[in-house]
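Researcher: Here's my situation. A collaborator sent me these components and asked whether they could plausibly form a single complex. I don't have experimental data yet, so a predicted model of the whole assembly would be a useful starting point for our discussion.
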Amino acid sequence: MERNIAHVALFAAMIAALGLVPQITLGFGVPITAQTLGVMLAGAVLGARRGAAAAGLFLLLVALGLPLLAGGRGGLGVFVSPTAGFALGFPVAAFATGLFVEHVRLRSAGLAAGLGAVFGGIVVLYILGAAGLAIVLDKSLAEAFTLVAVFIPGDLLKAGITGMLVQALARVRPQTLAWHRGAAGAGDLRL
Amino acid sequence: MISLTSPVETRAHRWPAGVKLGALCLASTGLFLTGSAAVHVAALLLVLALYAAPGRVFLQAGLRSLRVVLPFVAILLVWHAVTGELRAGALIVLRMVTLVALANLVTMTTGLGELVDLIRRLTAPLRRLGLPTHLLETAIPLVIRFTPVLVARAENLAEAWRARSRRRPGWRLILPLTLQALDDADHVGEALRARGGPLGPQ
């Protein structure tokens, strides 16, 4: 229990710390930040419930006015700004990533984590993000999606990094990955 | 860690946080419901007046935190100029800027402690349903403490890398950072346990 709290707090801090990493610019001029890498990692390492708790805790601190979002943003303005859907989608994305790694059993933990990050951190997060953008900017979902599609290559890169990190974690520190340890439970998909 | 609360003491700092948050919710809903341009312009002018009232330092800090919506303002105006519905676009821009400015205003005039108190009161019903919301009071300070520790650890690792290589460290540092941080978290978990566990429900 104490360890769970510490791990949830740690990954919430990880999401914050990765947001402070200076953004890098992809070849075609799109800036990417490492923040969603933290969200993917939280889901892929901690699993659905604790991963969502970590992302939710991070979001709560942003709402309380700490400048933890990439670029030093924070406060309540985040939740009415055009990118509110992405911010509010963080816990859902971490949950979806965790759900994927917990229920789709692959032989390689890294592959499961990478695919889980694509599912949670890209598919789910972009649906929510585009929905938020569509509401605030008063556009259709498809139009909103075209505005954010340029960021997808950067996020694919982050999903790949998530996969590699979890693969390494499974080798050197397997006790951290609770979902990777035991045998598959009933109703799990085995591939 | 620095909060976004403004160091310039305004009258609004003394208003109850719950009232400010309630007013923000009402104003946001109202602006989404009305399509009248006059109301939107009036709302923006009112918010700007609120920013200007405490003086120049406050106004400048407020305008600085509004810069993040500028790209969206540009996208919207170009978009609507192309589709020929500039009036509708201007309305959306006005609403967006006003809402973000208003929400930032609440953040700038409300201290971290007050907001934490408000969270405790708002989550009281959940607590009665059996959700362990009191754990937040242990977890929030932990995150606030962990974040600078992680940043310092990352800087240490980057320095160690630069001492040994001319290439940029990049994402390779994240694995050692995660491993160190997981060890830290285990120690913190044990320390919490040794001290009687997280804060209990009062």
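Model: Some features of this prediction you could bring to your collaborator: Chain A touches chain B through 54 residues (CB under 8 Å). The helical segments of chain A are 2-20, 35-46, 48-63, 84-103, 109-137, 141-148, 152-172, 178-181.
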